[in-house]
Amino acid sequence: MTRFGVYFRSTVGRKAVAAVTGVVMVLFIIQHALGNLLIYQSAANLNRYAAFLKDKPGIVWPVRIILLAAVGLHVWAVLSLAAQNRAARPVGYAKRTPQASTLASRNILVTGLLLLAFIVFHVLHFTTGTILPSTHMPMDVYGNVVRGFRIWWVSLFYFVAMVGLGMHLYHGLWGSPRTLGVENPYAPAHKPIPQIIAIVVWALFTSIPVAVVIGYLHL
Amino acid sequence: MNLTLYVWRQPAGSPSGQLVKYDAPDISPDMSFLEMLDVTNERLIARGEQPIAFDHDCREGICGSCGMMINGVAHGPMKGTATCQLHMRSFKDGDTIYIEPWRARAFPVIKDLVVDRGALDRIVAAGGYISVSTGSAPDGNAIPVPKTDADAAMDAAACIGCGACVAACPNASAMLFTSAKVGHLKMLPQGQPERGRRVLAMEAQMEAEGFGGCTWHGECEEACPKEISIDWIVELYRDYIWATVVRREERAAEAAI
Ligand code: FES
Questions:
Q1: How many CA atoms lie within 13 A of B86 on its CB side?
Q2: What is the pLDDT, as a whole number, of residue A103?
Q3: Closest ligand 1 atom, CA of B61?
Q4: How far apart are CA A151 and CA B28, in angstroms?
Q5: Segment (H or E) for B220
Q6: Rounded distance, CA B174 to CA B252, Å?
Q7: Burial, A11: exposed, middle or buried (Cβ in 10 Å; 0-12, 13-18, 19+)?
């Protein structure tokens, strides 16, 4: 086996794949969260932004392909690691009291699967309009958002999924730089950075369905 | 004090076992946890029952023999100590205590609370050494080592190989152990010639033994009786990537041919 073959077969290498693809997705998510802020400026600005993106297939399609590849590699890496980790303890403890692990770290697989389901739903909902076609009008992103989030279970699903996203980022962003060996363990100031990013991203995304439900954003 | 124990009993050679309830009356708070088990065992023997098998040796926290899951916590509720350094004053009268062996595929149960930790020895045998020609002891200060490096190496070398990190890890990973054994050698000049080969071989052995991988839960660091930092795992990852990309030792070997 080549040295890179050895690397990707090891947990260290597959974790690095998960970390790099995770960082790629987080960069997109941050961009997405910031782009969403236009909804608070005006419906016209948000729709103009959407039209601007639609006009640039040379940018949009490569980004989509990179993201799709990142999702695929991330899922492959973490599922194979999770299977290996599970096999490492065939007999569990009758009593186990966690000391240091967090809700976010212990449930990273659960939140990850939730996000996978959410991504599929989200694309089918807002991008293609396949789900709930009656609320979908091409090129009217603002209207689609407001009409979509007026349906209670859609808002609820987004709300829950964003809690999952926050938890997933909370642990994933803490671990990723460590997995890649780039975190400086002697820099305690770095510690809150992933937490701050997770909370800001969660708040930005969650604010939109909440704003629709309370009537701040309306048609 | 009077306690109720639930102890994992598994006959030697049997693939399964179960938790068995024992009463432990009249326990002095000044006893160590292992002395409490000794007393319980004497009572069992007096009744003609099999005593509870558990590993122990130094009983002062330096050998790494002892180790059990006490109420779901590796080495019990005292932080930074091995099971042998835990005293019964950490418990209250009337407490119920669950006592289980380390659980991992790579740590098969031999009997009751005794597990086979040979997997850890094999990880060390895969590369946790330096190759030098032996001879008379070298002069103490022949190789200068910065104080901070010497201290860091000492921190990692404090690992007593008890296996609590594996027991506590939700993935039964031996990454903290492996990173400590890689780490104390990599901090010193003597460890440099085989640095890349060592990290690759020891990590590969860890996986071959059936341990899981790290997902940064941090349970290992919390359970470690020597309080070895999880940051050693970051160091291992950095070295692993470096060893994969740079391949210094193989290049040196090729250049020598
Ligand atoms: S018996 Fe030696 S460390 Fe506990």
A1: 25
A2: 93
A3: 3
A4: 64
A5: helix B219-223
A6: 31
A7: buried
Q: From the CA of A46, how far away is ligand 1's center (Å)? A: 66
pLDDT band at A202 (very low <50, low <70, confident <90, very high): very high
Residue A33 confidence (pLDDT) above 80: yes
Beta bridge partners of B8: B19
* Residue B177 burial by Cβ neighbours in a 10 Å radius (0-12, 13-18, 19+): buried
Q: Please name the member of B207, B222, B231 whose beta carbon is closest to the beta carbon of A99.
A: B222
Q: Which residues of B touch A182 (CB under 8 A)?
A: 238
Q: Phi, psi at residue B173, to the nearest 5°?
A: -95, 145
b vs e for A76-97, b when ≥16 Cβ sit within 10 Å of the residue's Cβ? ebbeebbebbeebbeeebebbe
The beta strand positions in B66-190, using DSSP E, are: 69-70, 73-74, 96-100, 109-111, 114-115
Q: Point out the residue among B19, B73, B211 whose CB comes nearest to the CB of A94.
A: B19
Token output for B201:
């071989």
**pLDDT exceeds cutoff 70 at A188:** no
In chain B, CATH 3.10.20.30 covers 3-110
Contact at CB, A105 and B244, closer than 8 angstroms: no
Mean pLDDT of A157-184: 91
B45, B53 in Cβ contact below 8 A? no
Query: What confidence tens digit (pLDDT) does each residue in B150-202 have?
Result: 999 999 999 999 999 999 999 999 999 999 999 999 999 999 989 999 999 99
Helix axes B118-125, B195-208, angle to 10 degrees: 150
Domain range list for chain A? 3-89+101-213
Sheet holding B73-74, edge to edge: B18-24, B3-9, B96-100, B69-70, B73-74
A78: nearest CA partner in chain B: B215
Domain B118-256 has CATH 1.10.1060.10: yes
B11-23 tens-digit pLDDT: 999 999 999 999 9
Closest-CA residue of B relative to A106 is B217
3-state class percentages of chain A: helix first, strand second, coil last, to nearest 5: 75, 0, 25
Task: Find which of B231, B233, B237 to mutate to test the A interface (most A CBs within 10 Å of its CB).
Answer: B237
Mutate to test the interface with B, among A14, A86, A95, A103 (most CBs of B within 10 A): A95
Residue B210: phi and psi, rounded to 5, are 95, 15
Chain B residues in contact with A108 by the CB 8 A cut-off are 215
The amino acid occupying position B253 is A
Mean pLDDT of all residues in chain B? 94
Q: Which residue has the tokens 């470690």?
A: B224
Considering the segment(s) B3-110 as one domain, its CATH architecture is: Roll (3.10)
